[in-house]
Amino acid sequence: MPSLILTTCGTSLLTNGGISDDLRRLLNKHANSRDWSVMPADESHTLQQHANNRQQSLLAADEQQVRRLSAELNGLLSWQQQPSTPASTQDMYLLLATDTALGQATAQSVCAWLQQQGCSATIISATGLNTASLSSFRQALSGLVKDLHEQLSSYKASGYSINFNLTGGFKGLNGFLQALATIYADNAFYLFEGSSELMLIPSLPLTLDAEQVIKQNLRAMRRLSQNLSISASECAAIPELLLFSIDQERVLSEWGELLWRNSQAKIYKQGLLPSISERIILGDAFEASTKNKNPELISIINQRIDDLAAYAESDCKLALKSLDPKQLQGSQHKSLWECDLDDHHRIFMRKDGHNFYLEKVDKALH
Questions:
Q1: Backbone angles phi, psi at 309, to 5 degrees
Q2: 347: which strand partners?
Q3: I need a labelling partner for 274 at 20 to 30 A (CA). Which of 76, 130, 202, 333 fits?
Q4: Residue 206 in contact with residue 181, Cβ under 8 Å?
Q5: What distance in Å separates the CA atoms of residue 54 and residue 34, rounded to the nearest whole number?
Q6: Which of 23-37, 229-243, 316-330 has the least mean pLDDT?
Q7: SS3 for the chain, per residue?
Q8: How far, in Å, CA of 95 to CA of 124, rounded?
């Protein structure tokens, strides 16, 4: 079975080994600097030169030197050498880097080393993923849940084993990833400093069943997942843990995103859901046109209704790649619009200003 290995990246490559006190102070000073350009020119040059030197050392190092230089690769090498996890040419490595110049430089070096070994490696990150601001960090985690849910679920469906390497990275991120691992990963593993043995933490034999909480607040959760506003009364009914305030607007917290992403697919397959916006009106024949459709298509229909709500409430300015609403050409169609569902089905609707009247789900017109 091929594996996807998500590795959190810190800055161990830049701090391990012998470095001067002045250089260490400089690394600490700019630990949260997002770009080299925001640093004084001389300090930026010193740190970039140090990062380049460490990358060259890493690429020329033998295995023992690699282990000493990089906590992330030390954990990966120990994991790879277990009899139960033989390497596969299909293995994929995701490197989760902080939103900092030093974090990105470290991840790029680890990525270059993996690619030098013939591995498929990609760096991912999220804006605000650093320790400069708690609110920005939590926003970054919310965005990260969306991206990881999509990627990890896709690899899982393709037969991959999902593993989290939490040897590197910083405590706040690794703590959150450990919680995420109980839902998405088959294993999480650590290699403690000075140890040669992995600590494996298998996925717990439980599922996160938040369906009751989600269903009780379904309209609000659907709107929040589309970054649409909800009323104060709807906020009051949602557990505080699932919400986060940004500029006095309530949005889903990282935990809210996690619960939503884990429950949405199941709920959306169960049947047609009502509109979440006054601008999206389901016509009398619309529900009937969805009868006897398979659960996968019903799920897509519900998602498109949500997407249309976000599009309509943006005064039709929001660009949604999955939605692609368009007016049908030809005089016989008059003011008829459509949006894609799958290769064979469309939602047909009429547009009046920024309102959409959904008429039916039917086969695509050719």
A1: -60, -45
A2: 339, 361
A3: 333
A4: no
A5: 20
A6: 316-330
A7: CCEEEEEECCCHHHHCCCCCHHHHHHHHHCCCCCCHHHCCHHHHHHHHHHHHHHHHHHHHCCHHHHHHHCHHHHHHHHHHCCCCCCCCCCCEEEEECCCCHHHHHHHHHHHHHHHHCCCEEEEECCCCCCCCCHHHHHHHHHHHHHHHHHHHHHHHHCCCEEEEECCCCCHHHHHHHHHHHHHHCCEEEEECCCCCCEEEEECCCCCCCCHHHHHHCHHHHHHHHCCCCCCHHHHHCCCHHHEEEECCEEEECHHHHHHHHHHHHHHHCCCCCCCCCCCEEECCCHHHHCCCCCHHHHHHHHHHHHHHHHHHHCCCCCCCCCCCCEECCCHHHCCEEEEECCCCEEEEEEEECCEEEEEEEEECCC
A8: 6
- Integer CA distances (angstroms), 104 to 92, 111, 126, in order: 19, 10, 11
- In terms of Cβ atoms closer than 10 Å to its own Cβ (0-12, 13-18, 19+), residue 345 is middle
The per-residue pLDDT for range 270-302, each reduced to its tens digit, is 999 999 999 999 998 999 999 989 999 999 999
In this predicted model, what pLDDT tens digit does every residue of 81-123 receive, in sequence order?
Answer: 887 777 788 999 999 999 999 999 999 999 999 999 999 999 9
Q: Which range, of 48-57, 120-129, 232-241, averages the lowest pLDDT?
A: 232-241
- Rounded CA-CA distance 66/70 in Å is 6
Q: What is the pLDDT of residue 72?
A: 94
Q: Within 10 A of 253 (CB to CB), how many other CB atoms are there?
A: 22
| Interior/surface letters 160-184, b for 16+ CB within 10 angstroms, e for the rest | bbbbbbbbbbbeebbebbeebbebb
